[in-house]
User: Which sequence fits this backbone?
């Protein structure tokens, strides 16, 4: 059904969460999102967003729909990086944002990033999630595990998956999963790294959709900052980097290598001191070898 009470272009399945609907209407009323697709259940919001983009290739008539929010009460085949599954239940906030990409100079439009900024989008979104957590769950401290995870209290609480469609270079899809009150014990066999739920680290809001408006606000703000003040965003990323100063393992070709993370470079790459010099990682999988941090 189409719901115009919260603004134009809001399409929802029957029986979705009333709290979720209110959160979506808030984002529409504030002008932060220009369109919403709200699913009762879906495999993956990122997959749905990519399929939508593929089907509209060449039309060029949907500039008034972005930023576009796709959200689901139940996501049963969520995807993470490297082909992994993102597990979720009724305590997990899962959604995707479709943002437009252009090479024009930044003009203040919240929906636009330039193509040169794309390598930093996942990191900027991670910062946005960290800011949201610290705002809504103070005094919790949130850290960024390069390249796309947010950690609190010794475990991952959020992940980011940025995707694009070959025939739509003017759009990018940003998928976000946040463990608000996720029952992680039910997914123990599917977890690849230590994970936490925000409800496990303090007495905070456990209704996932009460987090949605602030997360989206912060994402748009961080993308604006990535355009207008990239150096300030980079400095915050360096301060939040979970891996800096730690021994790490990372994939190199078909094998693995070890070194010490010494920081983040100007392009958002992870700087790793290895026996034969300095290596810069721009993608891939990284593990912290030892050390407990928050």
Assistant:
């Amino acid at each position: 059904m189409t719901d115009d009470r919260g603004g134009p272009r809001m399409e929802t399945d029957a029986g979705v969460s009333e709290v979720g609907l209110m959160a979506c209407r808030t984002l529409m009323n504030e002008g932060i999102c220009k369109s919403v697709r709200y699913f009762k259940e879906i495999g993956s919001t990122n997959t749905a967003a990519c399929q939508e983009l593929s089907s509209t290739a060449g039309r060029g008539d949907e500039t008034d729909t972005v930023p576009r929010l796709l959200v689901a009460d139940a996501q049963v085949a969520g995807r993470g990086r490297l082909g992994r599954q993102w597990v979720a239940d009724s305590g997990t906030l899962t959604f995707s944002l479709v943002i437009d990409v252009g090479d024009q100079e930044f003009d203040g439009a919240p929906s636009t990033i330039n193509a040169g900024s794309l390598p930093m989008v996942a990191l900027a979104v991670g910062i946005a999630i960290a800011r949201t957590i610290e705002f809504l769950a103070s005094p919790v401290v949130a850290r960024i595990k390069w390249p796309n995870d947010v950690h609190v209290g010794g475990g991952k609480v959020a992940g980011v998956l940025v995707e694009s469609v070959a025939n739509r270079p003017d759009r990018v899809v940003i998928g976000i999963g946040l463990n608000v009150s996720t029952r992680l014990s039910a997914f123990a066999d599917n977890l690849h790294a230590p994970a936490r739920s925000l409800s496990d680290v303090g007495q905070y809001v456990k209704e996932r959709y009460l987090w949605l408006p602030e997360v989206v606000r912060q994402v748009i703000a961080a993308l604006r900052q990535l355009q207008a003040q990239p150096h300030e965003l980079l400095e915050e990323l360096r301060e939040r980097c979970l891996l800096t100063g730690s021994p790490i393992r990372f994939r190199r070709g078909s094998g693995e290598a070890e070194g010490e993370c010494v920081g983040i470079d100007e392009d958002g790459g992870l700087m790793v001191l290895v026996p034969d010099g300095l290596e810069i990682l721009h993608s891939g999988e990284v593990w912290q070898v030892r050390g407990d941090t928050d």
About this structure: Residues 212-228 form the longest helix (17 residues).
